[in-house]
Amino acid sequence: MSSAPPPTPAPAPASDASSTTESAPESAPAPAPESAPSPPPQCPAHQSHGGGTGLLPLSAAVGAPDPRAVYRKLRAEWGNVAKVELEPGVPAWLVMGYRELLTITRQEQIYSRDGRKWRHMHDGVVASDSGLLPMMGWRASVIGSDGPEHRRLRKPLDDGIAKIDQRKVRRHVEQICTDLIAEFSERGSADLVNEYATIVPMLSLASLFGLDAIEGRELLDALIALFGSADDSQAGNRHFEQILLDTVRERRRNPTDDMTTVFINHPNLRNEAERLQSIVVMISAGNETVTAWISHTLRLMLTDPRFAARLHGGRLGVDDALDQALWRDPPMNNMPARYALHDTELGGRFIQRGDCLILGHAAANDDPAIRADEGDEEPGNRAHLAFSAGPHVCPAQVPARLITRTAVNTALNLLPDMKLAIPAEEVTWRPSPWTRIPVSLPARFSAARIPLRTGRG
After folding, report:
1. In 202-309, at which residue ranges do the beta strands (DSSP E only) sit?
2. What is the reported pTM?
3. Helix (H, G, I), strand (E, B) or coil at 312
4. Which pLDDT score is estimated for 379?
């Protein structure tokens, strides 16, 4: 439900996980000289905020008031492929060119998803307790595989999504949204991120996989830590996977009509570890990215005059705002990762075997090669790379849009005079090198009592 399913966390224990084959890491290739020039003093790469490489921390770009301005400065100094810092002392290439991004997503024989190929993992640059590992560490799953193995593990996801009853899901998501709004509607104010956009996707996904609301909230807390790639990332990962592992084992004893049972019974999944990781991919991919999409669409509807006018008969509506959000603030602003299997060249830069490349979806959507002017995106134009491309393109674009559109429409319909309670420029962002989600979106509206819909459907 993102550009591609987000990288999976480190393995949780599984009863038959030992049957999963894991090849030994390759030895680190010999260092090669850097070909990238030293950026001049005015380049954002020197604004390292204490980083260990003298490069721009990727999280600083994502959390900037205007990330596109930061990416444009990087592009002016480096071209379409720029060196950045993932955490202090850990460099990577940020791929910002539209064509270059298509190249690395489509050429598996050169750019692999297999995190074991990351040379900085082998030479000690990335610490074993790094907060990057839950997002970037290798796992025997659809995320960490290429070629035939990827296709084998991708099919359960495609088959599971194909079984989704979209009308039933829409009604259930509308029920979730209505009940959440009912909790704060009489107050006349709410935080549209933490009381709404953050909760809707997780409760929707938890229901699909047979988890209750309490389990859904626990998963949500763990995922927020995981995607932050900070000190609590690995602990969040372990708790997230343990909840899902318990669910998998319960469904093996007592099958039901839910997505967990579909994955347990799929012939392409050979053991408990693969079943668990397929569910991890679906839920982790769907929650964080749909939270971002809902948040940015609501922000547009409340702050951009073109969309705010929709409430007064304006020309542009929710679907246009959904597309605009994908261009400006894709669900995964930056996506980890590809690893070079050979020394190669990309965008005029020498890429060493084992180098890490980050997919800069937001920057690629702003590539002047495809954006010839500074005008707004044409309504209905879906040539963006918000869902990535190639074999790892997001498999869940339709249900993601369904959940997002339902959440935005329900909020606008039930709270028609809703307004942002702070100036748009005062919105701040959760710390993450990957996703750009507001810390909060405080809103005001006319207080009203909205009946709960729980139990209807």
Report:
1. none
2. 0.84
3. helix
4. 61
Q: How many CB atoms lie within 10 A of CB 457?
A: 9
Q: What is the DSSP string of 280-301?
A: HHHHHHHHHHHHHHHHHHHHHH
The rounded distance, in Å, linking the Cα atoms of 134 and 9 is 4
Identify the residue whose tokens are 């104010």: 189
User: If we measure between CA atoms, which residue out of 168, 161, 157 comes closest to residue 406?
Assistant: 168
83: β partners: 93
Q: What is the pLDDT of residues 361-409, one digit of tens each?
A: 999 999 999 886 655 566 667 889 999 999 999 999 999 999 999 999 9
Contact by Cβ (8 Å): 210, 455: no
Distances (CA, A) of 412 to 116, 217, 391, 405: 46, 24, 36, 11
- 229: nearest Cα among 88, 65, 338: 88
Q: Residue 171 CA to chain centroid, in angstroms?
A: 25
Q: What is the pLDDT of residue 23?
A: 32
Q: In whole angstroms, how far apart are CA 269 and each of 91, 148, 156? A: 35, 14, 8
For the cut 70, the answer to whether the pLDDT of residue 31 exceeds it is: no
What is the spatial distance between Cα 441 and Cα 420, in angstroms, rounded to a whole number? 7
416 burial class (0-12, 13-18, 19+ CB within 10 angstroms)? exposed
Question: For 347-365, how does the pLDDT look when each residue is reduced to its tens digit (9 = 90+)?
Answer: 999 999 999 999 999 999 9
Nearest residue to 392 (alpha-carbon basis) of 118, 102, 194:
102
H-helix or E-strand spanning residue 365? helix 361-365
